[in-house]
Amino acid sequence: MTAPRKPVLAGNWKMNHGPSETARFFADFLPMVEPGDDRSVVFFPPALSFAAAREALQGRPDVRLGVQNVYWEASGAFTGELSVAMAKDAGAELVLIGHSERRHVFGETSDETAKKVRAVLDGGLTPVLCVGETLDERRADRAEAVVTEQLAPVLAILSPDELGELVVAYEPVWAIGTGVTATPGDAAAMHRAVREQLSAAFGQAAADAVPVLYGGSVKPDNAAELLSQPGVDGVLVGGASLDAAGFAAICRATG
Ligand code: PGA
Fold this sequence. Notes:
Elements: E1 8-12, H1 19-29, E2 40-44, H2 50-56, E3 63-67, H3 84-90, E4 94-97, H4 100-104, H5 110-122, E5 126-131, H6 135-139, H7 143-156, H8 160-163, E6 167-170, H9 184-202, H10 204-208, E7 212-215, H11 223-227, E8 234-237, H12 244-251
Parallel strand pairs: 1-2, 1-8, 2-3, 3-4, 4-5, 5-6, 6-7, 7-8
Helix pairs in contact: 1-2, 1-12, 5-7, 7-9
The structure holds 2-phosphoglycolic acid.
């Protein structure tokens, strides 16, 4: 029997909260959330706010930080990009890879996400791989096929040991920032499909160790129900993670 997966409560701030706002956020948020090792709380602030977040989190090792994106090369003439080593040096433990805004606004392909996952693992950080279908793809009954196609190039470059380093976030694109959430049943069904794909590639025990998060309009009033679904190991929260009281309520929804 595998150890139960710890719930992960992750806030993706996207292009919100500069350094001053970040300091204010944590001054409000930290007193509302007791340190505890029964869950994992993670924030993905913008890169420019990372130092302010790290400073605010001194003495709170229960809250971890990640960056929202990296480039796969180690250094060089790549204007605007961040390397994995830089992210690690700054104190990041995790990296969001393949968020739907990276895929759909910035044109990132699944092969590029695989290269990024490779670089993140080689650099000793944890990749949080985001996958999810658009509304048209869901209406065309292709939701599972799309998620499978997004996962496959990443699974192809992992060794069995490395699977244990991966976190997957299922985020239906039509639920991101729209106020529409997948029904708990739809979320649970896709989480089951993701775990079956992991299991087919690496075996059930290895697949069971991978946290699979749900993201897309998670709010304080729907977090508990989503988190109680079988196979939903946590949430990746955008808009509602910008509000200290709201995100603190989501962190307490793990039951
Ligand atoms: P949302 O974003 O919670 O604002 O829908 C989720 C995400 O994009 O990670």
